[in-house]
Amino acid sequence: MSANITSNNEKKAPSVLRAAWLIAVVTIVSKLIGFVRDVVIANCYGASTVSDAYFYAYQLPALAIILLGGVGGPFHSATVAVFSKIIPSLKEKANSEVNSLFNTFLTASFIFFAVFALLCFVFSDQIMRFIISGNNPELLSLASLHLKIMSPVLIVGGIVGIYYGILISYREFILPNVSPILMSVVIIAMITLVKHDNTGIVLAWATTIGAMCQFVYQLPKIRQLGFRLRPNFDFNNIHFHQICELLFPAVLSSTIGQVYIYVDMFFASALKEGAWTAIGYSNRVFQFPVGILVTAFLVPLFPIFSKLVNQSDFNSIRRYFNKGVGVLFFASFPIIIGVWILGYDGIKLIFEHGAFDDRATFMVTQALWFLAFSILPYVFRDSITRVYYSFNDSATPFLIALCSIVLKVFLNWLLVVKLAIGSGIGGITLSTSLVTLFNACVLGILIKKKIELDYKSLFLNFGKMLLAGGITFFVCWGMAIWFNQFFATLPTKVFELTKIISIGFLCIACYIFLNLLYKMDYAIELKDRLLAKIKQKIR
Description:
Layout: H1 2-45, H2 49-68, H3 74-86, H4 96-122, H5 124-131, H6 137-150, H7 153-169, H8 174-178, H9 180-193, H10 201-224, H11 238-268, H12 275-310, H13 314-351, H14 358-371, H15 375-390, H16 395-418, H17 425-446, H18 455-486, H19 492-517, H20 521-538
Helix pairs in contact: 1-9, 1-12, 2-6, 2-7, 2-11, 2-12, 3-7, 3-11, 3-12, 4-7, 5-6, 6-10, 7-10, 9-10, 11-16, 12-13, 12-14, 12-15, 13-14, 13-15, 13-18, 13-19, 14-17, 15-17, 16-17, 18-19, 19-20
């Protein structure tokens, strides 16, 4: 029996790797287009009252379309965890039992989110007054109007998440990762066509239309898999109860995560104009590389974790977990080094056009420097959370996140109000990093109640990466000082671009060389794969 399981896992590994590379490519394209969207928004609105109003109002729609309904969100995760166990065959269309459960889940989600959207539309003024602490009538009025326009996005969020989960359960990895591109394209197109928009109304409407496009885009494939959309109120379905047992704590956990954001918004609204916009852009820059890594490796691994838990194959779970987290750690160190040394140059090169000036560039960079501390605990926390979900346990991550609210408020008060780190902007993102570290550590300790993970080998490799990363940082830092002294007379854009390419190449080369010197597994595997590809092309 164990031999058969091993053989099956050996067959899974290449497919997971291929899926990860494929998802990475699609996610890179999606993130690039999202980056273009952010640049277009930045050029049009800068870091201003209008951009602050939009980003304040967008947090509730973002809760639905990204946190709850996005890839990796609770609706997607709950769908994968349950449907991947009851779908009889991936090669056949959905049967009546699976269809019934799908429609029951869809009906319940629609009712819940429709009520949520209606409340946000009716009480938008009160909601914005609760979130925004500063006495700025223009900001409050604009944010309230934006929320009214974007309230339909709340209805779409959970439903899109269910679609994502169904597609991934059927190993359709590409479509869910292509879908978010639609919103970015719609926003880019509408802002470009409307040249003068002093209130940001076009941006709010573009967000709503883009979300609707995501919903419509999934339908043909869902129907092709055999699913038919029909209202179903069979809430006594045993599998629906399983979804609810997993979903409700996960939704609460994500909502608690949103509470962190509301705490940040409250403190940021008392800072200078554009502070919340700067924090928002720093998060987007952060999510560009980190989101690609996490999505590429954890999306294909999550259904496998669920299957392995169902088979009680704990050895394979340990192996897959260490492999996934190890690769994420390995790729994270160059990103952190790049942010700390080249963050300002990158923001200046990409964003500093139109209404986005040097003041805005520095504000975003301040936020990003402190947010970079969270990359390592972030990838570990997201990875181990998938293991909890595979054991049908979303209550533990929720309780840990709930306890962290007090820590978040205290750290914001200390780092923003009392110490004013990074003009307060850096204090907000540093508190986020510290809370992420706390969550990752507690989740890592409590998982022992379910499975004993092999931390020794994981963190032995981590130590080698840390040493290689530390040396690489000082080498690149010295190179940056030398570059600033001898090439400062170059035209600004040429200087920034040349500096980023030169130091970026040095960072990657030095980091990989040192890891090879320390005989680090992932560096050796990367070298072997590259050499094999080169030999294959030569032949």
